[in-house]
Amino acid sequence: MRLFLFRRLLLAILVCLTVLVISFTLTRLSGDLAASIAGPNATASDIAIITRNYGLDRPLPVQFFDWAGHAATGDLGRSFLYHSPVRELIGARLPVTLTLGLTGLAIALAVSLPLGILAAAREGTAIDRAIMLVALVGQAMPSFWLGLVMIIGLGLDLQWFPISGVDTWQGYIMPGIVLAFSAIPALMRLTRSGMIEALAADYIRTARAKGLSRTKIVFKHALRNAAMPVVSIAAVQLGFILGGSVVIEAVFALPGIGYLAWESITKNDFPVVQAVVLFLAVIYIALTLLADMMNALLDPRLRG
Amino acid sequence: MTNSAADPVLSVADLRVTFGERTEAVRGMSLSVARGETHCIVGESGCGKSVTSLAVMNLLPRGAARSAGHIRFHGRDLMGLSEREMARLRGDKIAMIFQEPMTSLNPAYTIGSQMAEVFERHRRAGRRAAMDRAAELLARVGVTAPGMRLGQYPHQLSGGLRQRVMIAMALMCDPELLIADEPTTALDVTVQAQILRLLQKLQQELGLALLLITHDLGVVARMAQRVSVMYAGQVVESGPAAAVFAAPTHPYTRGLLACIPVPGTVRRDEPLGSIPGMVPRIAPGFIGCGFRDRCGSAMPECAGAVPLRDAGGGHTHLCRLLPDATRAPGA
């Protein structure tokens, strides 16, 4: 177990370093940073001043190590747009995105696990086909469209939920549902296929030969073995939800990380872009690590 | 041993198993096993022997359908039982072990947990009592350091140990009937011998009725009091093991026995016996002898109904030939 954790941790650190290099390089590739910060009406001397002030005239490796060194200590630089430390910008928006992401994932799991298990247990029946049809429809439905439909239907007509902002917890429900919808089809399919495979395994035949109840066979013996790929994908989906909720945050006007990323990209606020990319990558890596650890708890063979 | 007809633990009559409309895997199978008796079902792959055992347990895969005159366990017909009633018997009075010890245990749970749950289920015992019982049985099947094994996972055990665990698990609730489906096929030869010896010892000590399924006539010779030779879903010959080995009456049994090399009588350069052809796939409504395409004694009338012949002493076979006629050389 310790060796397993050590290997995973080492891998995670290597991936972090790679992301560091890539996010730095990508922002430099997007043109003359000083010129785009200064704006279209800037003179050559304005640009020269900005170049010098932000140290953009130094060799790239020097700039990189300067930035990476600060990033390692938690200092992600300052935003041009807000004139405040990037760390504070992210810190202020993180709770919104995190709450939204976890709400979305919770809803997604609450729907996809039971339905996936049910579909597997009733494989080939009308119930199975109906559930898979729902998954197909869910996959085909664009989330911004679903978001707008929900705003119109549940927000404006029925007035059940607020249509924008997160002044109250109810504000998270509709965007949470919309986000969940994007994760449900994959999770449901994976639960179903994992359960079908597990239910066909020899140890399930043994469990039946032992006279165990159907409930115990499905939920104790099959589910634990089917859960591993679901855990892995759930972690990836949460990463996706956290980083990819730009559209949803825009539709529901939520002040989250996705919105910050979008804003900083359009305004060429490169310290923020760099930092957000790095931050999301680290979250992704942490989630994958978490998933690996959960899988090691589920499957003793991985602990060896 | 000979009172199997009088008071059998298990008695199956005219069992049929179909897979859809195309295949009939078991075609009118009958057998009985008495207390303290080992009854072997022997045959090639695909002859329906495993399907027979699963049909008795009502554990057939989806898509298979069974029918039978009766499947009686201590006189109680299992055919009429609901799944819930059947589940109450499985693992308690009727236990089963399988061919693949590597995959028959759940990789995610400890040996102890998997053994204990049978006892908890059928005896309403607590975890501690169940674990004590599990340790006791592990010791009984010759597993060293049972207390330590209880906390181990299947992947930490060898194939032979896992099969011992499977056997111990099957014995948790003192079953009266143990069905063993090729329990040694996946094991090394030396381990095979150990497991067979163990099964034999346990069977004698506990008075188990043992239904042993195998493709290996060596296993039959070693273990069986009674043997049923299966071919294409039917029992083609059945009787006391000694009688069947001494004087096989069905051409198929004779063919099977000819495939076994006997040191001293078979010369090194002499090719081993083999039965040409393959077990045919047989659809419902098939009439005649299923072996006729591979049989050296086949006649046109073998396509018609086949009589069941009695050689005496409970030794029967399914063939147009009389018991004496099949003893002719070169069958």
Short descriptors:
heterodimer, A: mainly alpha, 13 helices, 77% helix, flat, B: 331 residues, alpha/beta, Rossmann fold, 5-stranded antiparallel sheet, 10 helices, disordered N terminus
Q: How would you explain this protein's 3D organization?
A:
The complex is a heterodimer of chains A (304) and B (331). The longest helix of chain A is centred in the middle third of the chain and has 36 residues, at 86-121. Chain A contains 13 helices and no strands. Helix content of chain A is 77%, strand content 0%. In chain B, helix 3 (111-123) packs parallel to helix 6 (159-170), helix 4 packs across helix 6 and helix 6 packs parallel to helix 7 (189-206). The relative contact order of chain B is 0.14. The longest helix of chain B has 18 residues, at 189-206. In chain B, the strands form 2 sheets. Chain B has an 8-stranded mixed β-sheet with strand order 7-8-9-3-10-11-13-12, with helices on both faces. In chain B, strands 1, 2, 4, 5 and 6 form a 5-stranded antiparallel β-sheet that branches. In chain B, strand 8, helix 7 (189-206) and strand 9 form a beta-alpha-beta unit.
